[in-house]
Design goal:
The protein has 168 residues and is of the alpha+beta class. It has one domain (9-167). It has helices at 9-63, 158-167; strands spanning 66-70, 73-78, 89-95, 100-104, 107-111, 115-122, 125-126, 136-143, 146-153. Strand 1 (66-70) and strand 2 form a beta hairpin. The termini are far apart. 11% of the residues are buried.
């Protein structure tokens, strides 16, 4: 009788067991890498959102002529130093407990930040009335489990301060 060269049943079972072990290791590695990627992506989105909010608030504080307190936030108005038209522009920030909304012309940005200790001041005094000029804004928020303080200051020209003093 002629013998055929083939694998035995035991050799096939051993090969299946080894390939099963390799596949389970590969699946576990994939899950770990995917979890790390999602965590990295969430951290990166949070940091970029905080950086964008910081950049926009800095830009608006520097470029707009006036900053006024509103019932639910602040309003930047007057002529922006970066605008090309002669129209007066407005940018409004609404402060909620879990968000900040920035409205500029037809653009609306929402920043998912939890606010704490929000403070609006004019000449180092807390502001209580609406439509009052603001020269200082500060608030605290949690950025990736670290408490961060955001602080912005507006330097008004003498003409604005004299107009305000004449109104009073």
């Amino acid at each position: 009788m002629k013998r055929l060269k083939a694998f035995t049943l035991i050799e096939l079972i051993v090969a299946l067991i080894i390939s099963g072990i390799v596949i389970s290791i590969a699946a576990t590695c994939y899950q770990i890498v995917y979890k790390q990627y999602k965590e990295y992506k969430n951290v990166n989105e949070t940091l970029s959102q905080a950086a964008l909010l910081n950049m926009l608030l800095n830009k608006d504080f520097q470029n707009f002529q006036y900053v006024n307190k509103t019932s639910d936030g602040i309003e930047f108005s007057g002529f922006s130093t970066q605008q090309t038209s002669n129209e007066e522009q407005k940018t409004v920030y609404e402060f909620g407990q879990q968000y900040i909304i920035r409205k500029y012309t037809t653009i609306q940005d929402t920043f998912g930040v939890v606010l704490a200790n929000t403070s609006l001041k004019f000449q180092n005094k807390e502001i209580e009335n609406n439509s009052t000029l603001v020269d200082e804004l500060s608030f605290e928020t949690d950025v990736i489990q670290e408490n961060e303080t955001f602080h912005y200051k507006k330097q008004y020209g003498a003409d604005v301060l004299m107009k305000l003093e004449n109104k009073e």
